[in-house]
Design a protein that fits this description.
Helix content is 67%, strand content 0%. It is an all-alpha fold. It is elongated and about 65 Å long. The termini are far apart. Mean pLDDT is 78; it is low at 23-34 and 221-225.
């Protein structure tokens, strides 16, 4: 006697076969321009999402571009969505069946479990908190910090959390990542340029210094802040 698992697999394959035939039949009415674009998008590689929350936003963007906006039925999009899930993450959408409503619900469940602006910001703030203090003369450290600040500032602005970009706890915490010499240079830079201390001002300074350090490193001089 077949097990429940094998029976579910058999039923799902039947459903997928029915959907594929329906899509092939309906595909004749799809505008050729849309089909051409989709054919190009299908060539992009989308890795299977396995639950790493820090990779979710990038994975979702690729999925929305190459699958969700494609000229195809929701049922077929759900088949494609399942192809890009693995392990327990596939179980998030597996019980929903194979319908247009199931596709929309599958996206909602994935977003609820792995996405959300608050979760994304919390992750970036944690990255900044765990960032080790800068090593003197290390251009890569500065570039990495500049990249983290770019992402964090953009996400805080998008969610309207502008107060966290001021001179509060986040700014003070970031200042502790600088070397003593660089911190002194930062305060002098603020004074000379008539600026106020803030996360955005610090970001501007870090980007500028990263460019300087990269230039100096390329000519073998990386001892500016030693």
């Amino acid at each position: 006697m077949a097990t429940d698992a094998s029976e579910n697999t058999r039923r799902r394959r039947i459903e997928e076969s029915v959907v594929r035939k329906r899509v092939e039949k309906e595909g004749c009415s799809t505008p050729s321009f849309g089909k051409d674009i989709w054919n190009q998008l299908k060539r992009f590689y989308i890795p299977a999402f396995s639950g790493d929350k820090k990779l979710y936003e990038g994975w979702k963007t690729a999925l929305m571009t190459c699958v969700d906006k494609a000229p195809a039925t929701p049922e077929y999009k759900l088949l494609r969505l399942r192809q890009y899930l693995s392990g327990e993450e596939l179980n998030v959408v597996e019980p929903l069946g194979q319908s247009a409503a199931a596709y929309e619900t599958a996206k909602e469940r994935l977003e609820r479990k792995f996405g959300g602006k608050r979760r994304r910001i919390a992750f970036h703030l944690e990255e900044l908190e765990n960032f080790k203090p800068l090593r003197p003369g290390n251009a890569r450290d500065l570039e990495r910090l500049a990249d983290l600040l770019d992402v964090t500032v953009v996400n805080l602005k998008e969610t309207g959390r502008h107060e966290e970009l001021g001179s509060g706890s986040l700014c003070l915490s970031l200042c502790k990542k600088l070397t003593e010499a660089m911190l002194a240079h930062y305060h002098r830079w603020i004074h000379e340029n008539g600026r106020w201390q803030s996360v955005e001002t610090l970001r501007e300074f870090i980007i500028q210094e990263a460019e300087f350090q990269t230039t100096f490193s390329s000519i073998g001089n990386n001892s500016r802040f030693e």
